[in-house]
């Protein structure tokens, strides 16, 4: 009977990992795919490999928090683990059906916390520590983006800006069995460097996603003691990779096209900030998601760039409002960077929106709905079954 429950648990863990892959791959590779610097298939392949590396290394710390920290490990019977994984999967699936990446770590913690509440075994100190970081992370990401956009981005853009050229990036031919690779007809060396950096950062984001999200799929089973960490990480990676090759195509479009339009330089900055925050918190055992960090960095970066038309005093007093109906990240950079407060709004008004309010509203609402559904279902189920 235990073998049957274990098989069921692994199958549900695969279901959870599949949905996590659909969500996380969009966050890691939506911007590079949207910028047309990599195809969806190549993005999914790189995503799977680096998810495994992240889960195999840093992810073990998060497994310990979810599988043994929030509630005692003896609470994770196989039956309880199966139901928790099911609630996690349902919460994530709701968001994936709408093509919106959900913070999977919040959904996983919600499901496990529901078990802890129902059994009276929830470790409130650890939960409080986790939730505190959830509240702080979007603020850190926004202000990291805002400071970069206001004080650093125009200078980086002046020297490192590169746009995707028309046509293939590389021209690959063959001389017998040897490949002959040269730059495409319109490709510049600066573009190659920029694209290489963007892809490298996408791999870094996938690593951070693995560190955070591999545990979400298998921590309850590891906590039960019926599945070892090493096979659990491998199973989760394969399932997450499958999601990256399939349903992630919608979330890649959602992040890369629906939220905002980003040039390559902005994509690099967003990826560095979000992945650094996620990897750092995963290293100290905090289940965290790339979703909030990525979205809030995008908003902060654009806001900071747009705020250069006003001094700090003008922004603080409301004398000069920052216009978020434009996308200053797409503006042409003049030869000389204007001083803060001297730049004119017409110089950065590209006629494009920085963010689309409806997309933001959809993201935020499903971030709340997904974890709430998983926590509510978990608490209700375990409360009723314990009576």
Provide key terms for this protein.
387 residues, mainly alpha, 2 strands, globular
Task: Give a quick rundown of the structure.
The protein is mainly alpha-helical.
Question: What does this protein look like?
Answer:
The chain has 387 residues and is mostly helical. It has one domain (2-386). 71% of the residues lie in helices and 3% in strands. It contains 14 helices and two strands; from the N terminus they run ααααααββαααααααα. It has helices spanning 2-34, 40-56, 59-69, 78-97, 104-119, 124-160, 189-224, 229-245, 248-259, 264-283, 290-306, 312-317, 345-348, 357-386; strands at residues 170-175, 178-183. Strands 1-2 form a two-stranded antiparallel ribbon. Helix 2 (40-56) runs antiparallel to helix 8 (229-245), helix 5 (104-119) runs parallel beside helix 14 (357-386) and helix 10 (264-283) packs across helix 11. The protein is globular.
Secondary structure elements and their pairing?
Layout lengths: L1 H33 L5 H17 L2 H11 L8 H20 L6 H16 L4 H37 L9 E6 L2 E6 L5 H36 L4 H17 L2 H12 L4 H20 L6 H17 L5 H6 L27 H4 L8 H30 L1
């Amino acid at each position: 009977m235990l073998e049957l429950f274990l098989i069921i648990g692994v199958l549900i863990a695969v279901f959870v990992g599949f949905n996590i892959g659909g969500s996380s791959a969009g966050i890691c590779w939506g911007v590079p795919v949207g910028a047309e610097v990599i195809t969806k298939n190549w993005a999914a392949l790189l995503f799977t490999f680096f998810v495994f590396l992240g889960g195999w290394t840093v992810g073990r710390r998060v497994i310990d928090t979810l599988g043994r920290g929030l509630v005692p490990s003896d609470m994770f019977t196989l039956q309880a683990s199966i139901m928790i994984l099911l609630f996690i999967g349902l919460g994530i699936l709701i968001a994936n059906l709408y093509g919106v990446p959900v913070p999977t770590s919040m959904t996983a913690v919600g499901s496990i916390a529901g078990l802890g509440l129902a059994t009276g075994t929830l470790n409130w100190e650890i939960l409080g520590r986790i939730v505190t970081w959830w509240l702080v992370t979007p603020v850190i990401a926004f202000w990291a983006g805002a400071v970069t956009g206001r004080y650093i981005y125009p200078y980086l853009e002046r020297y490192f800006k590169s746009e995707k050229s028309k046509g293939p990036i590389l021209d690959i031919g063959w001389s017998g069995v040897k490949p002959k690779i040269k730059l495409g007809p319109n490709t510049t060396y600066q573009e190659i460097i920029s694209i290489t950096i963007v892809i490298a950062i996408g791999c870094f984001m996938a690593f951070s996603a693995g560190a955070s999200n591999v545990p979400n799929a298998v921590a309850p089973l590891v906590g039960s003691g019926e599945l070892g960490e090493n096979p659990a990480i491998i199973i989760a990676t394969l399932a997450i990779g499958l999601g990256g090759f399939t349903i992630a195509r919608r979330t890649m479009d959602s992040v890369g096209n629906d939220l905002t339009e980003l040039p390559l330089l902005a994509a690099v900055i967003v990826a560095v900030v979000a992945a650094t925050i996620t990897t750092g918190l995963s290293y100290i055992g905090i289940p965290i998601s790339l979703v909030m960090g990525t979205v809030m960095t995008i908003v902060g970066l654009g806001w900071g760039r747009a705020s250069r038309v006003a001094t700090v005093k003008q922004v603080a007093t409301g004398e000069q409002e920052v216009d978020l109906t434009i996308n200053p990240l797409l503006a042409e950079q003049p030869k000389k960077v204007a001083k803060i407060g001297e730049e004119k709004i017409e110089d950065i008004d590209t006629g494009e929106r920085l963010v689309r309010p409806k997309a933001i509203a959809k993201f935020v609402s499903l971030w709340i709905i997904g974890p709430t559904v998983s926590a509510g279902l978990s608490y209700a189920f375990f409360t009723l079954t314990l009576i």
